[in-house]
Amino acid sequence: METGFPSVGELVIGTCTKLTPHGAYFEIFDYEKLGLEAGFVHISELSRTWVRNIRSHIREGQRAVAKILRVDTSRGEIDMSIRRVSEPQRRTKLTEFKQENRARGLVSVACEKVEGSLDGVEESILGKFGSIYEGLIQAREKGESILIEIGIPEVVAQEIYQLAMKELQPPTVRLTGLLNITCYEPEGVIILKNFFKSFNKSFNKKYKGSELNIKVISPPDYRFVVESGDWRTAEGIWKDVQKEAEKFFASYDAEYSFERQ
Known about the structure:
Elements: E1 11-20, E2 23-28, E3 39-42, E4 63-72, E5 77-81, H1 87-113, H2 121-129, H3 132-142, H4 145-148, H5 154-167, E6 173-183, H6 188-206, E7 211-218, E8 221-228, H7 231-248, E9 254-260
Parallel strand pairs: 3-5
Antiparallel strand pairs: 1-2, 1-4, 2-3, 4-5, 6-8, 6-9, 7-8
């Protein structure tokens, strides 16, 4: 909600509103009341590479994910960084942003359909679930009763539930990677089979709710396809593939490499 200031370390989404030789100013989503130039990203915090031309990295009207570095509430100053946001963090935040906007739109439509008031509905869902999207996903899974329990009128709750069932699907992300493995041992084929069998077993125990498919392209190339509920989990699975391969083949005469696709 549009209250107060963001916290240090928080990831936010901002729209660039002004460029200067020293950096860029941003309006911060969910903190619009702080103004069009609430957040500032110094030129040194725009990119991990040297910035020769600031406009080659950011332009007015462009949306970006940033990390809050410093907040001075007395002066209304917020220093942010774009370069300190990892790619998985950026993707996750943008996905959450789109999901939240979509969920807010559905709640608004639900209230309009039954000629109900939007006043207090979003606040009630946020207070209980932390986000509108999470509230609608929970309603989709457990029914409109969880919305009625937090004070949302029954007719509105029923309409929100119907829209959530129709318009929202549980989040799924897909990550693919290429694993190239050549084992020079006499029983190399058996060793490779044991590796894939061992990894699948540990995967099923550790990552319930996610899916992993290993497809043979043409030995020594294997494609890993990971489907999970969020980027953080998917990235964690991909890193585990690499760690497990390095650990498993350490005692064998083998070569391997990894590539994200």
